[in-house]
Design brief:
single chain, 303 residues, alpha/beta, two-stranded antiparallel sheet, 11 helices, 10 strands
């Protein structure tokens, strides 16, 4: 069984889309299992449907308004570098309404329902492929994996949305008596889960560099400190998930093909910039092409 696993990474998901486009359209890889966390969960249904041009259009056209119904920060550009600062008025409005988070992301749920139709959902559910999204159950302190086979259309759209909700900057969702948040808080790269579900070969797209390549700039305000802290924690979670995945692969005779980003795409994946995301999609496609051509050359030389 072959699986495609896509990690979390916010706006960097555009790079994963480019990698998947090359693997599926140019190399002809056919996957039985699609597993995603956060931004990865947004991609996998469309990839399973082979509607790559459709999801590419979405990823290369979204902006902050496409995601946030109440955006908790403002984007400032200084010396060509984007940084974020708290939008005090929007945060105050959110707390005044009784919200537990700085911002709300209900526009993202609308976007998910607009792009993944009920007819497409039925095709996927009745098909042979399994599509699974990762969510974090904060109430029960555990990671959960939601398969399309176990959901109605509305439920699956909500689980995709929940998987992407990077709290406390995006919505905290109460569902089935529990509070749920971004799947990346528990498992950024669900390689182990893919192996548990029977995968013997996995293409894993990791939306960070393989080795640490930068030192973060000093935090300018409380909000940037929060995003830096969360980025640090998610990076540690991701590294641990990869190690566990490698361990599980060795003990189950599974093969993992890793696709890391070759360079730092952004230090703040909450900023959705159309121009950059378009470039990242193309970068992902070209990187996957380069990696596979190089691998083919190594194999032919060894023979």
């Amino acid at each position: 069984m072959r699986a495609l696993v896509i990690s979390g990474g916010g706006s960097k998901g555009a790079f994963a889309g480019g990698v998947a486009e090359y693997l599926m359209q140019e190399l002809g890889h056919r996957y039985d299992l699609f597993l995603g966390t956060s931004t990865g969960s947004l991609l996998i249904s469309h990839l399973a449907l082979k509607r790559i041009s459709k999801i590419k259009e979405v990823y290369t056209s979204v902006n902050q308004d496409s995601i946030f119904s109440n955006c908790p920060f403002i984007i400032q550009k200084k010396h060509g570098v984007d940084s974020i600062a708290i939008d005090h008025w929007n945060v105050f409005k959110n707390f005044y309404r009784g919200s537990k988070t700085f911002g709300e992301s209900h526009n993202l749920l609308k976007l998910i329902r607009q792009t993944l139709t009920e007819e497409e959902f039925i095709v996927l559910k009745n098909g042979p492929k399994e599509i699974v999204v990762t969510v974090s159950n904060l109430s029960l302190n555990q990671v959960e994996y939601k398969s399309i086979n176990d959901c109605t259309y509305d439920e699956f759209c909500e689980w995709i949305w929940i998987s992407c909700n990077y709290t406390p900057f995006m919505s905290l969702v109460r569902k089935e008596g529990c509070e749920y948040a971004d799947g990346g808080l528990g498992n950024m790269v669900p390689i182990e889960e893919a192996i548990k579900r029977g995968a013997t070969e996995i293409d894993a797209v990791i939306l960070q560099t393989e080795t640490t390549m930068f030192n973060r700039m000093p935090s300018k305000n409380a909000f940037s400190l929060l995003t830096t802290m969360f980025s640090f924690m998610l990076d540690r979670i991701e590294s641990q998930n990869i190690r566990i995945g490698k361990f599980a692969a060795v003990h189950n005779d599974a093969i993992i093909n890793f696709y890391y980003t070759p360079a730092i795409l952004t230090t703040n994946s909450l900023i959705f910039d159309k121009e950059k995301m378009t470039a990242w999609w193309e970068s992902g496609f070209q990187f996957a092409k380069y990696k596979n051509v190089e691998l083919s050359q190594i194999i032919s030389e060894s023979e």
